Amino acid sequence: ATCGHGCKYGECMGPNKCKCFPGFTGKTCNQDLNECGLKPRPCEHRCMNTHGSYKCYCLNGYMLMPDGTCANSRTCAMVNCQYGCEEVKGEVQCLCPSGGLQLGPDGRTCIDIDECSTGRAVCSYNRRCVNTFGSFYCKCQLGYELKYVRGRYDCVDVNECVTNTHRCNLHAECLNTAGSFQCKCKQGYQGSGFHCA
């Protein structure tokens, strides 16, 4: 087979009949084929025609996949959240595992909310609030201890006079009070109750 005009980017298949290599067109295969103008488009976002071929590009925040599609580059795997994340409408949002945590300024790590100082935590009158990472708990006030009484747990006054945890003087009497105790010097002695003379 002879092709009088030649086949620039192809091969001669019959009398003056060229078979073009991919990416080229025309009677003598001398014209570049603009793949970006083809239907369906070869690229999802942006296409750039090159000599005998084309290149695909993606918009900001996306990355090119091997099949020419563009995938969101801000996926959970790439954002590196401390406690995992969710993807909503193409946006990646880091999550915190409890209501006692909030997303930090970096948008990836979770910081503790101090429920005790913000007033979010409510403890009963004889309990005090103790903040923990992501939560809080109510602890018995000093001078009270947790006991199981009448089918429920409650903070009960510690009788320091009976448990011998008072610091009264040897010549003083111990008087139990709610959550604490008092010391009173015995007859014939005077002082604070901690010191009697």
TrEMBL record:
<protein>
    <submittedName>
        <fullName>EGFL6 protein</fullName>
    </submittedName>
</protein>
<dbReference type="InterPro" id="IPR052235">
    <property type="entry name" value="Nephronectin_domain"/>
</dbReference>
<keyword id="KW-0221">Differentiation</keyword>
<feature type="domain" description="EGF-like">
    <location>
        <begin position="157"/>
        <end position="195"/>
    </location>
</feature>
<keyword id="KW-0130">Cell adhesion</keyword>
<feature type="domain" description="EGF-like">
    <location>
        <begin position="32"/>
        <end position="71"/>
    </location>
</feature>
<keyword id="KW-0106">Calcium</keyword>
<dbReference type="InterPro" id="IPR000152">
    <property type="entry name" value="EGF-type_Asp/Asn_hydroxyl_site"/>
</dbReference>
<dbReference type="InterPro" id="IPR000742">
    <property type="entry name" value="EGF"/>
</dbReference>
<comment type="similarity">
    <text>Belongs to the nephronectin family.</text>
</comment>
<dbReference type="GO" id="GO:0005509">
    <property type="term" value="F:calcium ion binding"/>
</dbReference>
<dbReference type="InterPro" id="IPR001881">
    <property type="entry name" value="EGF-like_Ca-bd_dom"/>
</dbReference>
<keyword id="KW-0677">Repeat</keyword>
<dbReference type="GO" id="GO:0030154">
    <property type="term" value="P:cell differentiation"/>
</dbReference>
<keyword id="KW-0245">EGF-like domain</keyword>
<dbReference type="Pfam" id="PF07645">
    <property type="entry name" value="EGF_CA"/>
</dbReference>
<keyword id="KW-0964">Secreted</keyword>
<keyword id="KW-1015">Disulfide bond</keyword>
<dbReference type="InterPro" id="IPR049883">
    <property type="entry name" value="NOTCH1_EGF-like"/>
</dbReference>
<dbReference type="GO" id="GO:0007155">
    <property type="term" value="P:cell adhesion"/>
</dbReference>
<dbReference type="InterPro" id="IPR018097">
    <property type="entry name" value="EGF_Ca-bd_CS"/>
</dbReference>
<keyword id="KW-0732">Signal</keyword>
<keyword id="KW-0272">Extracellular matrix</keyword>
<dbReference type="InterPro" id="IPR009030">
    <property type="entry name" value="Growth_fac_rcpt_cys_sf"/>
</dbReference>
<feature type="domain" description="EGF-like">
    <location>
        <begin position="112"/>
        <end position="150"/>
    </location>
</feature>
<keyword id="KW-0217">Developmental protein</keyword>
